[in-house]
Amino acid sequence: MSDRTSEKAWNHRSADTAERMASAARFIGPGKVVKADDTVALLEAVIRAGDRVNIEGNNQKQADFLAESLNKVDKSKIHDLHMVQSAVPLPVHLDLFENGIAKKLDFAFGGPQAGRVAQFIREGKLQLGAIHTYLELFGRYFLDLTPKVSLICAYKADRQGNLYTGFNTEDTPTIVEATKFRQGIVIAQVNEIVDTLPRVDIPADWIDAVIESPKPFFLEPLFTRDPALVTDSQILLGMLCLKGIYGEYGVQRINHGIGFLTSAIELLLPTYGEELGLKGKTCSHMILNPHPTMIPAIESGWVDTIHCFGGELGMEEYVRARPDVFFTGPDGSLRSNRAFAQTAGHYALDMFIGGTLQIDKFGNSSTATASRVAGFGGAPNMGCDAKGRRHSTDSWLKCGQEQPTLNRVLGDMPRGKRLVVQGVETFGEGRAPVFVDKLDAWELAENAGLDLPPVMIYGDDLTHVVTEEGIAYLNRCADIEARMAAIRAVAGYTEIGLAAKPEETRALRDAGIVKTPEDLGVDRDRARRDLLAAKSVRDLVTWSGGLYNPPARFRNW
């Protein structure tokens, strides 16, 4: 037995990597630096057909130069790549499939490329592995989807190859650690190479090559919302949320999803929230990117802690000046980390609030439709009742106590429940109904050959639905029939809403399962823009004392 064991080689991965790096050695100079003009040749030296490859594409920062270079490789040599990456928000990410270089995709967020992803699936240009949550995909990096080669980005490298990821650290540590410690290859594009870094975020011995990009990497201000575009309807929904959910449950630890509803809520905190007496009772600890619309609430003393998934363009100096609120390094800049923020979002939150494209009659919802595969990002991790949670808070306990179905599977064992809220207008973009009998995700599953329809938040996790018609407290429903009736009651003039029975809705209102604005004492006539703490991006700059430096496209003065 010992003789046979001694004959077996256990270093196939590292030997393969050494062979590839030997082929690339002529392009790599002191400090692991590669000339930008040699990038395509470097990639052709280290990547093989069929490899599993990660291009760092986050919500915000993008290894765009490396993605463009990968599109220029000889596809007769490099093809059928399996791309595993958080997001595919740039056209160049999908050009890999158009050009025949990549074949399969496992991802979490599609963003602006949502329509093109759906089109490629229909046309057979893209084989979809799965639409993951961020944590799910990160977990698989360390199990069965480890990249062989990862292409990442950072602000700076020093002469030894150490990296400074700075304000937008995001996914970088997770990608690098999974790849490098499985004997993979890590190539970094950086904005500049300097003598001394503000801090070392990724050590040089975890990096195989560094390329100074011809231009800074692309950054998307994904979470920036112009207060001037917040509508009266969104303000009404925000008022309902603050009065009927934030105040009702005293939720302290929250994540706000992307969108104008949550921006409206943030801008209502110093005005309507103060009026309701909620300061100090809600929104004190948040897992959140540095949303500019949070500035008035932060300046008004609402927030104790914010840990960030990533950065937000223009918020660098504001965050630096508010270290009591944000997590910052010794150099003063933000330290974001998507994996840690998602973990906190999964286990430590009391409430997640976001929106969706469709909700079915049972309360299942999705942002993946037959024509748009937007992906889910982190919403399913934060928008679920984490079964591993063992600590309690008042709002978590209250939500659990209101749920009459828990004792059917737990006996007399008490348990809390996270608040999972979806705030939507009954008709969305292009006047498409948000409430539907059957999710388009079923059609997408058929088109992509998936075993299950891609659902963002399952109905049994959803606790509250908020529309212009009112709030449905699904956690108070005794059975699926009551839940369906509550959804119908707030679904407005959609096909689902028109099926609501007036006497049924009246009974639900009497039971406190459905509450209209009138039931909550929310004056619809007050849902106007003058209730917002800031009515323009310029107002946000003023609130920040000039520290917020909005991207050019948001400057209208």
What does this structure look like?
With 557 residues, the protein is of the alpha/beta class. It has two domains: 183 residues, Glutaconate Coenzyme A-transferase (3-Layer(aba) Sandwich), CATH 3.40.1080.10; 314 residues, Glutaconate Coenzyme A-transferase (3-Layer(aba) Sandwich), CATH 3.40.1080.10. The protein is 32% helix and 17% strand. The strands form four sheets. Strands 1, 2, 4, 5, 6, 7, 8, 9 and 10 form a nine-stranded mixed β-sheet that branches. Helix 2 runs antiparallel to helix 3 and helix 18 packs across helix 20.
Overall geometry comes to globular
Tell me the number of strands: 22
Mean pLDDT, as a whole number? 95
Biggest pleated-sheet summary: 9 strands, mixed
Unreliable spans: none
CATH class of the largest domain: Alpha Beta
- Helical residue percent band: 25-40%
What is the CATH homologous superfamily assignment of the largest domain? Answer: Glutaconate Coenzyme A-transferase
Q: What does the radius of gyration come to?
A: 25 Å
User: What separation lies between the terminal Cα atoms?
Assistant: 78 Å
The assigned structural class equals alpha/beta
Our count of domains comes out at 2
Q: In what range is the share of β-strand residues?
A: 15-25%
Specify the CATH architecture of the largest domain.
Answer: 3-Layer(aba) Sandwich
Number of helices: 22
CATH topology of the largest domain: Glutaconate Coenzyme A-transferase
Pfam family, one: Mal_decarbox_Al
Protein name: Malonate decarboxylase subunit alpha
Organism: Roseospira marina
GO molecular function: transferase activity
